[in-house]
């Protein structure tokens, strides 16, 4: 079973996607993934994560597409074998806590372990990023990077398509963090697209805001 600490910072995407620097921090909660090979083809999912009511139903199609993206990126054959994928852990599946990145990264690590792919963190991160595209459309990459490397990170997206900037930071003190859950499950793809439309419609006003 692949177990890792999940991360917070997804809402920074509204600025990070435009190349602005951001800091993301790990949480004490985590998502786990376990992959078993069984007879058949395709995959089935047993999602045991705690959730904001209705989250997993609303995100079902995105979750399935994210799994497909990760499997295809890692070239996992699901035509001659069937995968039984189980997600668990104590990170609540909710909007705004990096739950999708936690799911994608834990899946990539579990597949790496199950199929002896010998992937380093950079490749795990790339696979998780592909999964995040199903949830975000055009993700910044900060959530999956935080989920892959853990700790406290400084992140800047490369707008030219090259390698993003990521530095691990050290904090001399532990900082308490309070997270409030509104109970609302939002579509990140739609929200990011709305922000992009506002930017394109009023570029000068948008520049002043950010």
From TrEMBL:
Residues 67-151 form the GHMP kinase N-terminal domain. SUPFAM superfamilies: Ribosomal protein S5 domain 2-like. One of its GO terms (biological process) is isopentenyl diphosphate biosynthetic process, mevalonate pathway. GO terms for molecular function: ATP binding; mevalonate kinase activity. Pathway: Isoprenoid biosynthesis; isopentenyl diphosphate biosynthesis via mevalonate pathway; isopentenyl diphosphate from (R)-mevalonate: step 1/3. The keyword Transport does not apply. The keyword Calcium does not apply. Keywords: Kinase, Transferase. One of its GO terms (cellular component) is cytosol. Pfam families: GHMP_kinases_N. This is GHMP kinase N-terminal domain-containing protein. The lineage of its organism: unclassified sequences, metagenomes, ecological metagenomes.
């Amino acid at each position: 079973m692949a177990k890792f600490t999940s991360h917070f910072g997804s809402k920074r995407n509204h600025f990070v996607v435009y190349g602005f620097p951001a800091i993301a921090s790990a949480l004490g909660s985590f998502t786990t993934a376990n992959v078993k090979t069984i007879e058949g083809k395709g995959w089935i999912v047993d999602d045991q994560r705690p959730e904001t009511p209705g989250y997993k139903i609303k995100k079902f199609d995105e979750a399935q597409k994210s799994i497909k993206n990760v499997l295809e990126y890692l070239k996992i054959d699901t035509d001659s074998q069937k995968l039984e994928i189980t997600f668990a852990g104590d990170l609540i599946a909710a909007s705004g806590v990096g739950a999708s990145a936690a799911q994608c990264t834990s899946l990539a690590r579990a597949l790496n372990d199950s199929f002896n792919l010998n992937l380093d963190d950079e490749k795990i991160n790339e696979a998780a990023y592909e999964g995040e595209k199903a949830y975000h459309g055009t993700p910044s990459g900060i959530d999956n990077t935080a989920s892959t490397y853990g700790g406290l990170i400084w992140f800047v997206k490369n707008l030219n398509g090259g390698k993003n900037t990521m530095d691990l930071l050290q904090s001399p003190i532990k900082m308490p963090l309070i997270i409030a859950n509104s109970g609302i499950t939002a579509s990140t793809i739609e929200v990011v697209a709305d922000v992009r439309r506002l930017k394109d419609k009023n570029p000068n006003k948008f520049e002043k805001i950010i």
